[in-house]
Amino acid sequence: MRFADRTLGRTGLTVGPLGIAASYGAPAAAVERAVEAGLNYLYWGSLRTKAFAEALRHLAPSRDRLVLVVQSYSRSAALLTWSVERALRRIGYDHADVLLLGLWNGPVSPRIMEAARRLQRRGLVNALAVSGHKRAALAGLAAGGGVDVIHVRYSASHPGAARDLFPHLPGGSGPGVVSFTALDYGRMVHPRYTPAGLRTPSAGDCYRFVLSHPAVDVSMTGPRSAADVDQIIAARELGPMNGDELAWMTRVGEAVAARRRRN
Q: What is the Cβ-side half-sphere exposure of residue 253, based on CA atoms within 13 angstroms?
């Protein structure tokens, strides 16, 4: 019942179900172990640690197994090009599989989109992705066919995408879906947010909840240590949650969301 590899929407890329982000400090050997376990969606984001760069260099001989994501928050076309070139130069790669345009809560600037298309024509990036918090805007981007992947917040305490976005995505040749903040910035795994009488979820529980929704292709993770990577790998092996587990996670998520709103 482990979570299987899947195709990332219209990109045609084969991805493992859990992505590894560069920003949190997991040692290089642990990142490489995650890739050996089939977790190949590697997010070379805006905060790029030395250890993650080391792992990517070590993994270069297996480049065809990797799905490298480079992110830019730039609102300047010239800076977008510069940031992608710099990100690739640092790790010695000649292209990214996905260029992620970060945090667009409305239409992507035509200048930014044209700069991204130029990077595609140069062969520096293949697929285009957009992240954001406004689900209606992401639904519009998905329907318009201008992007290949969308990154959206989704967790037991932020379940709105299951209502406002996932049912409206085009089927078949639609965009891939990558979720982030499965742990709700640590709230989901903190005992003080857990209702009395309920078990506090682990990080692995949070990832399993997200991946149990059939619309989600990849759940992003932010491991800080080798132990975190072990938990991520174990979550893959456990596979989808059953009905009782989903109900428990939903109850915890509702309590976390209610407390967050009060604060």
A: 22
